[in-house]
Amino acid sequence: MYRNGILEAEDFPVADVSDHLLDPDATVWLDFCAPGEAELAAISEELGLHALAVEDAVHEGQRAKVDCYDSHSFLTAYAVSMDGEVLRCHEVAAFVTRQALVTVRKDEAFDIQAVLARWDAAAEGAKSGVGFLLHGLLDYVVDGHFDTAQALDDQIEQLEDLVFEDRPDHTWLQRRSLQVRKNLVHLRRVVVPMREVVGNLMRHDMRLVDEAMQPYFQDVHDHVLRASEWTESLRDLITTIRETQLNLQGYRLNTIMKKVTSWAAIIAVPTAVTGFYGQNVPYPGFQQVWGFWASLVSIVVLSVGLYALFRKRDWL
After folding, report:
1. What whole-number distance in Å separates Cα of residue 52 and Cα of residue 174?
2. Rounded to an integer, what distance in angstroms lies between the CA atom of residue 47 and that of residue 36?
3. What Pfam families would the database entry show (predicted)?
4. Percentage of the chain with pLDDT > 90?
5. DSSP β-bridge partners for residue 73
């Protein structure tokens, strides 16, 4: 519990929340990790939370959003991180009243200590009450979106370099490109709705963001827009890489086919000449030494001529 921006109480019973909120200068933060509806019943009673909001806070897989009720607002957001090659999403819900913020984490993977560290690092803004706490939470979430977009951007740059290798591993590239694209789809799913979330929280009729916190929320909103635009551009880029890979595969296949066809044509020359001189009927030079040399010269001249022609046309 904060009073006038100063931390005054910690680890008090949920039943004391309503008593603290009788003081208009008090701001309360409560945090739950993977609670059930029964566990949220007490705070729901204390703050008058809507049953639908409580139900959404318990069930996983909600869309990032802000719902407004008479006495409070309810928001859902996702922190993201890279676990090796796989994108992990960590859902957090929050009940927001004029004097209280209740966070509901779906699992321990959501690093609430990092949020606390942000609050402690900017303690001078605590006088703004719930707006200050909400900004720290959203700032942590959006910064995670940025870091993940940067990590995926680095992975895409590596794929770009590998695509143009002389002997790329096409199977690995296809699998890796698909994984990156899936990660970008998941990232877009949690990043794009955040534009609406932050924009709604900044509305004057919400009365959550005072003049002191308005620039900070505007900064978060700008970061959300940049993260969503970055995600969209990365999706286009990974699609371009995939198309480039397929085009290069087709180009290399055509090059190989041209070489094989050219060599087949060259090999066909001695086959044709020796086949002609292998007839069972008399022909010019039949059973004569000069006939052997004539056939040999024909083979060499025609083969060299074809080789030079194919080299000139860049077929070999």
Report:
1. 43
2. 17
3. CorA
4. 33
5. 68, 96
